[in-house]
Structures are given as C-alpha cells and as structure tokens.
Amino acid sequence: MKRAVIVFSGGQDSTTCLIQALHKYDEIHCITFNYQQRHREEINIASQLASELKVHTHKIIDISMLNELAISSLTRSNIPVTNHKYNTDDLPNTFVPGRNILFLTLSSIYAYKIKAKIIISGICETDFSGYPDCREEFIKSFNRSVNLGMNSNIIFKTPLMKLTKAEIWALADYWDCFLLIKEKTLTCYNGIIGDGCGYCYSCYLRSKGLSTYLKNRKSTLKKIKLKNNFK
Hints:
Shape: globular
Number of helices: 9
Low-confidence stretches: none
Order of helices and strands: EHEHEHHEHEHHHH
Number of strands: 5
Structural class: alpha/beta
Distance between the termini: 25 Å
Radius of gyration: 17 Å
Largest sheet: 5 strands, parallel
Strand content: 5-15%
Mean pLDDT: 93
C-alpha cells in the first residue's frame, strides 16, 4: 500500500501536488492547518477540494498558538499585506516564522501514526516569495532531523521545488485539472478565490505564471513532460 500525507492548503501549489499524487499513491491523507490566518477561507476551500477529489482522509489541525507567537501580516489583521512591489532584498511581511517547520513536524507525527513513508508539500524555491523555509537546503536538512528524532524513514517530497509558476500551471494542465486550479483554488493572501485580489505578492506570482504559460503553452508543456519523465 503506497500511502502519502499531503500538506494541503487548498492553494494552487498544494492542489497541483494533490492531483498528481492521486495518480501515484493508493491512499492520500491531507492535513490542513488552522493558525487563524488572515486568509483562513483557504481551510474551507481545502475541505471542498479534498471532498471533490475524494482523498482518503482530510484532517484540519488547530495550531492557533502560531498566531500568538509569529508576527506577520498573515497573523495580524492590523498589518497590511505586502504587495508585489516590495523590496526583494528584504523578507516580505507575509513570512510566518516557523510555519513550515511546524507544518512538517506535525505532518511527520501524523505520517508516523498512520505508517505513511511520504510527506508531500507544494514548497517551491524557484518563484518563491523570499521565504527561507522554502529552500531545498532547508527541506533536506529538516528531513534528516525529523528522521533522527523519530527513528523513522519518512521522505519529504517537494515535486514543485524546481518548477516556475508557469511550469506549475503546465503540470495542472497535464493532469487535466487546469480549470479546477484556476477557478477553485485559493492562493490569495486576502482570501479571494480564483484570480484573487491582484494586489498581494502571491496573486502576482500566480498571475504572472499563468500569463507566461498561456503565451508558451506548447513549449512549457513539453518542458514539464521532460522534467517529470512523462510520456
């Protein structure tokens, strides 16, 4: 039995990972985290998508303490969300310190419980927003630490790590879920489904990637097939 846990937010990246995983694993367990985030509507979207895509289980874990500890525009309503014109030499104020560390730790505990060897995350460093916990170096290092601390052999998989946003759109298209990703996922930090607010950096990356993909659809699809050894 090939079993995988997916860190699932209901956004473009994690939903694309979920769709691909459904073709590769026998049992998919999604885990979504409620940290009282500004865009908490993503939790409802994640539930709807998990139901529509018929995953084996979908857990929503309350980690509200992160909201108390981490100061970010995603955890404080009085801090405006950074737009796409921010200085890329600085961390954007949407960075939530420790978020991916906590997500991956709790997902590992859950995977240990259900005897899943694979944890999948939509983390990507190619078009990322300047977050240090989206780097491949961090993922590999933390994976080793988790296995040392739990005496386990869990593998963190990040299938989007080296893909551009345009290539992530191509991946969704390859799996015949382009419209589902475009219309039913929530990537926007201001909690607007689909195309989003158009103001926050997350929306900017999503829109820019979509525009690039639509202009180069054929060549980008070919590239994504080569990168993933698809036929």
